[in-house]
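Lab meeting minutes (informal)
Scribe: AK
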Amino acid sequence: MGPGRCHSSWICHLQDDLQRDSRLRPCILGAAGNVSLTIRESPMVTFAEFLENAASKREFVNILFEQRVFELIGTLQKLSLPLEQADVPHELVGGLAVFLHVENADSTHSSLTRDIDLMIQRNDLPRVVEIAKRQGFRHSSGLDMLLFGDANSARNAAHLLYSGERVKATQLEAHPTI
């Protein structure tokens, strides 16, 4: 099946911006006719390299903010690459997807999320959990979230949402299918 995708029609124009932004270098949009955020296997620029590059351009950098961006993108890459290699369909949704859009459209208005929201197909849950465990994630079945490393809070987790389902009854529409 296809790569991990950012399921948002308004994210189409990000392709060039994502390729130019060294913090988001592992991310590119792809697939003709289908908006997607693919995490490439190429190594991400390190945080130190990013800081050196910004310093050489005499750019102001909020170190705490930028370090958190690197952590989130790195965690996403650790989860998305193996899922993609195993042909497990998944889509990046929620706050991180919105952040990527806003950060590249007008970075003065961006607001960073603490977690990753990943939409999968419910029948793929056992495969996703198995793959995630091999990458250092722990599965919390009560909330269907993946915790990485020492993280022990839902705020810092990769939350799993299900394609074609609602999170709660009050949600107006079910998530789109992938």
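Next up, CB showed the second protein from the same session:
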Amino acid sequence: MASTQTQEITAMLDAASAAAAPSVNSAALFQPWTPDLIRYLVVAVLVFTMISLVLSTLLLWRRNAHGDTVLKVFGIISIVGISAVLLVAGYNNDQLTPIVGLFGAIAGYLLGKEAALPRAGDAHAPNSALSQLKGPAVAPVQAQSLPRPAMPSGRKV
């Protein structure tokens, strides 16, 4: 009799705990990507990023690009590549949000940063006067001094 009551109480406790526990959706826990596929995709993204960096190095080197341009190109390619690796690696939103926010801040800094004023004769500066000159050089016009008006008392200043 005591064992029957114990079994009934145990069954009731199990039923109550099952009812109180939140139901877990089995579809939410399903991960369609295998670890081998994730590893392959991460390596593929890293290889693509490295190839992009090598090609951009060659193009920027042949063009004799300015340092700010090199920094922007390398920074953006690196940020996009690392973000893609983190996305493929399967981090959840709570882990990715601060990382992507930091990358966004860095990208905004790189793209929004103004270049310093070019020095005279700096042909590599993208906005230099030499690179924008599209015709014969024109000497700057000098202001001519005008005669000063006479003061009401007749004295000149």
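CB comment: Residues 48-114 form one domain.
No objections, moving on.
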